[in-house]
Amino acid sequence: MRDRILILYRTTWAFLFVAAMALLPFSVTAQVPKPAGAGIKNSLGMKFALIPAGEFMMGSQESPESLAKAYPQYDPKRFLLLGDEAPVHKVRITRAFYMGRYEVTVGQFKKFLKESGYEPESVADGTGGYGYNPHYDPATSKRGDAFEGRLSKYSWQNPGFPQTDDHPVVNVTWGDAVALAAWLSKKEGRRYRLPTEAEWEYACRAGTSTRYYSGDDPKTLLKVANVFDLDAAKNWPKWQQFALDGHDAFEFTSPAGSFAPNGFGLYDMHGNAWEWVSDWHSDTYYANSPVDDPQGPATGGVRVRRGGSWHTWPFYARSSYRNWNKPDTRYTLVGMRLVREAD
Fold first, then answer.
1. pTM of the entire structure?
2. One-character DSSP codes across 169-201
């Protein structure tokens, strides 16, 4: 009799435990991504996906030997310069947020300028930006830069190659991105901002732990990203060995959403245009990063940009790769994507 009572007690307790667990909020992990929720569309026509709260492992500490095997065309010394991607650390995003399904487009930026009267920094300071010039020789610049500039003839309106309103806007500064977010916030009564670096990588990975959200093999990027491939390499033959071995049909930027999205319904998280995020950059920040909603260093000299561009070698378009520029940088590869905070 005592044994039967004990079995009944344990069975009842187990049932209650399972029922209680079912009521707990779902947590996204790197292994089990939760699909993005219902989207929204704002007054500029930007579409946003709801990214659920969750946790993931941020960064990479893949060995130089492993990377050299995956990217044999690169100088092995490049694989020793990735200390700021480590250590891999747990990050918890505690609140859901809306993230732009697409990078901000030329048409959306144009509408913002018309309605707000804002003057982009490349125009306001008179120094312009950078652009593609087929007759430009990188050897004539101090840095050997791939693009001509900084010149007043180049700006968000002219990156040196044709764009339509559906292409991602480039040659925009960090300040331009913040100004757009502030104007939208005031206009709509909802807070818009740049994503934090942690939010960006979490949204990019969408539950994956591979080099790209499409997998580890760089060739998987042909389905999801506009990066430096054989089409773009036609204009830079000396760098053809670093190009993705395939064709994506675009020499320059592609219309937003031309490739397959990730598990959260976000497009062009790899390639097309680098995206400003809100964080200052620090080589050592990951070692001391808080678990919950890291915001980056309190101060710094350069802001982080993520994701790579149409001119970025595949190695530098990985989910974990970090790059940075001074906030007033305007470049023919750099654009933006916004976050709108959820209720």
1. 0.89
2. P-S--HHHHHHHHHHHHHHHSS-EEPPPHHHHH
